[in-house]
Amino acid sequence: MALHVYVFLLVVCLLSLASPDDCPACRLASTPSSGGEPAPARPWREVKSRRGAPKRVNTEGFACPNQKCLYFGITDDQIHPLVGDGKHGPAERIQTFRCQACRTTFSARRHTPLYRLKTPSHQIAMVLSALAEGLDASAAERVFGYRQATITTWLIRAGEHAQTLHEHCFRNLQLPHLQLDELRTRLRNAKQVLWLWLAIDPLTKILPVLQLGPRTQNAAHRVIHSLLQFLAPGCLPVFTSDGLNVYFYALTAHFGHWRGVGVMGPKPFDGR
Ligand SMILES: [Zn+2]
User: Fold this and answer.
1) How far is the CA of 157 from the centre of ligand 1 (A)?
2) In this structure, which residues have their CB less than 5 angstroms from ion ligand 1?
3) Measured in angstroms, how far is the CA atom of residue 110 from the centroid of ligand 1?
4) What's the pLDDT at 135?
5) Are 142 and 159 contained in the same domain?
6) Which of 110, 139, 169 represents a domain boundary (last residue)?
């Protein structure tokens, strides 16, 4: 056996490989859920009577928010039973929808950063655009005349929604190369040092994962675990890093299959 292979195997044995059981998120995901998959909902037009006026309001992309409803979360307007149910709001006319199956009514702004906000949406968009350009929240208070606490609430809501959008849009990525890094940072007024963990594709500059946290093994597991959710099945990028050893355990816990080699090999280890 070539010396470098021997040294490699020795290093691998010394590092004692990680498995998915080492990742808190993997352990949580493997907990069996109660109950099976619900039966698929029949298209509402097959269920309801054929009488009545045709739908006039476009409901595509919206879904019944009632978790007990058979049509909960179904955004396809060929299946779901949503219809327009008037408009509301003093400043802007906001569409209301009604689910014909469970009779729940809800605003088109439900689950958006604008839900239940009274300020006109174009004003909020202007303030958030200024913040995205680098304007400080306290400066935005002076420029736009809204309280800093209000502006911060808008910012948090927009950030949380951006996270949801990111998770919705970044699916099945085929990324041949990813660079892993963690940057030392400090939040304003906070004495505690935080680390900004990131994975970046050097070709497209896509950042599939960006997380703030301590520089610990569990944080590395979280980063690699969420990265795995964005990659296409079977996609195994070439990873490069600054050499921080926690990446080794996080990567071997989530990717690939480790096997013993020849006479030297211990029992085959299945790394997934
Ligand atoms: Zn419903």
Assistant:
1) 25
2) 64, 66, 69, 71, 99, 101-102
3) 14
4) 94
5) yes
6) 169
193: tokens are 């040092």
The larger pLDDT score, comparing residue 87 to residue 256, is at 87
Please tell me the distance between residue 94's alpha carbon and the centre of ligand 1 in angstroms.
20
Question: What CATH number has the domain bearing residue 257?
Answer: 3.30.420
Distance 73 CA to ligand 1 centre (A): 9
The domain total for the chain is 2
Q: pTM of the prediction?
A: 0.70
Nearest to 199 by CA among 231, 169, 168, 172: 231
* Strand arrangement of the beta sheet that strand 94-99 belongs to: 82-88, 94-99, 105-107
Task: Indicate the residue among 169, 199, 225 that finishes a domain.
Answer: 169
210 and 135 share a domain?
no
Distance of CA 171 to the CA centre of its chain: 10
Could you tell me if residue 14 is inside a domain? no
Residues 212 and 151 in one domain: no
Cα–ligand 1 centroid distance for 121 (angstroms): 27
Same structural domain, 266 and 176: yes
Q: Which domain holds residue 155?
A: 121-169
Question: What is the C-alpha separation between 21 and 247, in angstroms, rounded?
Answer: 16
Angle at 223 between CA 169 and CA 254, to 5 degrees: 95
Distance between Cα 104 and ligand 1 center (Å): 6
**63 CA → ligand 1 middle, Å:** 8
On whether residue 54 sits in a domain, the answer given is no
Note whether 232 and 188 are same-domain residues.
yes
Residue linked to tokens 């590092």: 15
> Residues 171-207: pLDDT tens digits?
899 999 999 999 998 776 667 788 999 999 999 999 9
Regarding beta strands 94-99 and 177-186, do their DSSP bridges make them parallel or antiparallel, or are they unpaired? unpaired
Structure tokens at 143: 């420029």
Q: What is the pLDDT of residues 71-99, one digit of tens each?
A: 999 999 999 999 999 999 888 999 999 99
